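Hi U.,

Before I forget, here's the chain from the pilot set. I'm dumping it here mostly so it's searchable later in email.
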Amino acid sequence: MSSIRIAGDTSGEIILSAPSVAGTNTITLPAVTGTILTTAYTGNVTFSGDLAVDTDTLYVDSANNRVGIGTSSPATTLTVTGSYANGLEIYKNGVDSNSSARLFFNSDTNTTALYNAGGNFIISTGATVGSSSGTERMRIDSSGNVGIGTSSPLGRLSVLGEGRIVTIGDSGTANTPAITARNTADTSYAFLNISTYRTKFFTEGSERMVINESGNVGIGTSSPSEKLDVSGTVKATSFSGSASGLTGIPAPSELSTASGSAPSYSARAWVNFNGTGTVAIRASGNVSSITDSGVGKYTVNFTTAMSDTNYTVAGMAGDSIRAGNVLSLGCNTYSVSQSTSATTIAGLNDAGTLQDKTYANVVVFR
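Structure:
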């Protein structure tokens, strides 16, 4: 086997002289297996001009100081071109088999690192090149959830922080930033936007609620004048509070029936009770108790007193639900009376004498 050895005390060279006409100087190595080029030299191996390995497997553009992998026309300092699944792999290190190596972006004043840890893609800032330092800012976990300020995102996007968490702006002339929620078929949607210091809620393209710059809430109206301004019917199962500050509620005489032909009034108290034996109240409103005042005589005690004694008491009594007899209401013959805190009644039979009643019904109007 023939060989060329270049030896010297300090240096040795192989020099290819430029031809007299344009052309390429080539060193062709034999197509054999094994090692065909070795060196024990510990210094630098220098190439002048462009370098191509298998046309574009590796290409060095010496004029622009660019390197191409998979391309002979690198457009940046390092251009990697691949097809389909071919790309750039940053492989795990030998110390932590659960984490990949890191890709660092260094601006001299701050460094950002990107890496994979346990199937989570993580972005950290304040990193130091060549170390695992840095503060995690965002991750995409193995389920596809995105976390900002949290390493345990609970939904598609979880944001955790202090103060102003998320800011949404509109760079256009409309200046109405919006958040829109749509179904997967894009047939139904809802969104909220901010317009002239107002937050508006829309469904199916129509405004449903607004919070204005004064904090007033409008439902069915875009110009609420009070803390809650509703244009439409309000339905509720209960209300709490004294209602002492409520205004604009019509007086009973101003309330009308469905036909609007006559005024309607509210009952101030009512009771249905069994007056035989120990008096037992079946149901009531504003009645605290019934006092048995003797055979056929009862005192109805109000939970909340009447404003005066100018109220009207109506009622009926009987020994069955359907059979009715007279209840004496305010008749002095049987010593019945009324005060602001109670009213007395008497149950009579057909003969006009006092009798305990199984079914007694009383209602008070004012």
